[in-house]
Amino acid sequence: MSNHNLSRDEAATRSALITTHSYDVTLDVRDAADPDVAGYPSSSTIAFSAEPGSATFLDFIGGDVHSVVLNGAPLDPATVVDRNRILLAGLAAENTVTVQATALYSRSGEGMHRFVDPADGQCYLYTQYEPADSRRVFANFEQPDLKAEFTFHVIAPSGWEVASNGAETARTQVPDDAAATRWDFATTQRMSTYITSILAGPYFKATDHWGTTFDDGTHLDVPLALYCRASLAEAFDARELFKLTKNGLEFFNELFDYPYPWGKYDQAFVPEYNLGAMENPGLVTFTEKYVFASRATDAQYQARANTLMHEMAHMWFGDLVTMTWWDDLWLKESFADFMGTLGVDRATDWDSAWVTFAGKRKAWAYVQDQLPTTHPIVADIPDLEAAKQNFDGITYAKGASVLKQLVAYVGFDAFIAGSRQYFRQHAYGNTSLQDLLHALGDASGRDLGHWARQWLQTAGIPTLAAAIVDDGGTMGTVTISQDAVDPLSGKQELRPHRLRLGLYEPDASGNLIRVDSVELDITGPSTVVEELSGRPRPALLLLNDEDLTYAKVRLDAVSEETVRSSLDRIQDPMARALCWTALWDSARDGVTPAARYVAAVERFAPAETGIGALQTILANAAMAIERYVPAPGRDGVRKDFLAVAAAQLRSAVPGSDQQLAWARVLAEVSRHGDSQLPLLRGILAGGDVVDGLVVDAELRWSFWQALAAHGLASLAELDAELARDKTASGREGHALAASARPDPAVKAAAWDASVNASGLSNELLSATITGFGLAPAAMLDRYVEPYFDSLERVWAERSIEIAGRIVRGLFPGAQDPGPGQEPGTHPVVARTDRWLQEHEHAPRALRRIIIEQRSHLLRALTAQAAG
After folding, report:
1. Phi and psi, residue 357, nearest 5°
2. Which of 99, 159, 287, 404 stands the most exposed, by the fewest C-beta atoms within 10 Å?
3. Does residue 570 contact residue 610 with C-beta atoms inside 8 Å?
């Protein structure tokens, strides 16, 4: 049985015994390009203090441990290595331990990931550790509060680029090996193990620098570098990325009043990345999906800028000051999510950052917060598996939303002053909730303990609604009600809200504009808005105007009628986004039929000028059709929507982002419906030309995937397309399309490759699983029992990243209830319930995924039952 799942109690015991000082780590990856070489030499020397006579352990997940030397005395690996731990006993007050081992290359995106570029055969390496995968690369004390200084050395092929957190200090040829070079890197400031980083390979590199002079005359100069695979260099817009980087450094250095603390600032865009990005000090890593080899919309560029600003904010929130344990993960992720949006809003040319946040990021939080596994922002994280799963919509987007509410509550200046104090008091240290509350409380003059308990230590979404007494065209009593039940306790948790009510009326042109607003505090189950009594009833009364608080909004009857008839007439982008969100929440919650949401999209989306908003509502429409519209009417709703999408593809401004968005959703929905497949086939063949539409590799693959899902693309055709696009993204597109073909033998092969074999990398696994699921339900029914039978085996045999992809992706998707069938009695729901009952002691993280997938299915069935 594995002992890799470090518990909070074990971590606390270890940190009470020891204090880490420094690491000296050498990694030898000179043979990485040889696919027959599974691992690489890893040497780790650690200096640390300890309680004399005490015992503790190091963490290491890899191949063989060859030697362990503690304070000059060799230890027998056969005796001290206990699976994924190295036991150290009889410690002195000051200790040095050196571990020589073989670490293993990864294809899961965890530890040292090895990727071979199909475009040119070149080998690329990078590391990814959060929350606890540096132990897959070198032996260490893997927990965030045992910070230390790190000195890295890497031996690699001489022609490669190699980077780490610190600046390169020396580069020397390896004796007796002219093909290998040793890179030495500067010792870092104190940091946690999970944010150390290594990059190695024939990467394309661009350089620049940024500097500033402070009021005291001191100067800060920050060398900048950008990396991507050589085959992507032509598409790499380094100039724009450097511009964003400089704008961000200028903004955050001034905002935080604490000079950037990590020396250089490198940013690497790497393949098969499990995350959007990771905040490694001095060497931030990003998914290379942000290198746009195919056409990208302005919203995609803005999303990349948001991620760039998010990771930069982490240099202070998370890296300079780090949470003590993962319970306080929000201390870095919520702040970075908020600051990322603030950075785009304040330091770039985009003016829609908060609109995008309201329409997309908060929607993620709303979904997560309605699952039975929701949790407070300050969560209970008993172990590392739980930490891995709490990188979710609560920790990121809900936390950021609540911080936005906090800014409205205490004022922006006090919020920033408290943050500055927090950095100064805790630089290079570790903190918990109370440390931040003290700093913000001192700056604002408010006791934030009660606020924190209500917002940070409870779960669930408040729902706000307005009840208006009509008094002959004027408003009598206007009451704002708040329904806020914590799903974990079952108790009402009525939170304080600082919000605005927007009053919207048509102008002379018929456009809906804000004619007035009222700012107020909501503190209980109901609040009477005395300022509105006796005023004319507006066409639209918008609760939470400007999106200051975190809550679902139910429109009153008059306002809903206005929105459903005139949504495109609302001039303010934020107000329009909030109305779209209200309609979407109503459909997801089964309050109104999902087909009504799709109808609103068909009617109003063609006029939507905000490309980010358009992409969001089109994605919602696609989900509504396939998951929330009842089965008897689904084909008709889908066919109507596809007709609108095809018409908009031709009528949108040629070459516009809007045209591209309609093309993408046309392909996505066509995976399930065949009414527009001749159009897709005609575009691929070049016989049907849509003015302005660039049918690049990404779009071609999406069309092929739709055709393949209906059995209208042969493997020979897909292979021919792959021959045209010998790239990583092309390989993923091919894997999805090939496994999408509705052939029982194809599905069996895809299942076997995903569940029983281990040859697929993380991204190819996900593509194969997605394609597998594109099939008539009857073809996949035979996999329901094998799915549940395989769960514990998959969880035990695979890494948590790969196991999570399999368990989520292959959860049985049958969702159409039979005539008169209650959602709770659906056979997949019932089978899931039986598994949960019979596997009460299965790993918590595995049970959480199953519980969440059951909840998603039950919500879909409930929405369908609503009509």
Report:
1. -60, -45
2. 159
3. no
Tell whether the model's pLDDT for residue 821 goes beyond 80.
no
Across the strands, what pairs with 163? 199
Rounded CA separation 421/425 (Å) = 6
Taking the C-alpha atoms of residue 584 and residue 582, their distance in angstroms, rounded to an integer, is 5
Helices (H) and strands (E) in the chain, counts: 29, 29
Q: Where are the beta strands (DSSP E) in 410-507?
A: 430-431, 463-471, 474-483, 497-506
Q: Dump pLDDT digits (tens) for 646-681.
A: 999 999 999 999 999 999 999 999 999 999 999 999
Rounded CA-CA distance 9/143 in Å is 12
Residue whose tokens read 């700093």: 439
68 residue type, one letter: V
> Are residues 581 and 535 in contact, defined by beta-carbon separation less than 8 angstroms?
no
C-alpha dist (Å) from residue 603 to 7, 475, 666, 840: 53, 30, 16, 48
153-163 residue pLDDT tens: 999 999 999 99
| N-to-C CA span, the chain | 48
HSE of 150, CA atoms in CB hemisphere, 13 A: 31
Q: What angle do CA 543, 548, 550 make, to 5 degrees?
A: 80
Rounded to two decimals, the pTM is: 0.96
Q: Say if CB 657 and CB 299 are below 8 A apart.
A: yes
Task: In whole angstroms, give the CA distance from residue 864 to residue 867.
Answer: 5
pLDDT greater than 50 at residue 1? no
| Annotation says 311 is catalytic | yes
2 band by pLDDT with thresholds 50, 70 and 90: low
What 3-state class would DSSP assign to 733? helix
**Backbone torsions φ then ψ of 528, nearest 5 degrees:** -85, 130
The string of pLDDT tens digits covering residues 462-488 is 999 999 998 888 999 999 999 998 888
**Catalytically annotated residue among 130, 161, 311, 852:** 311
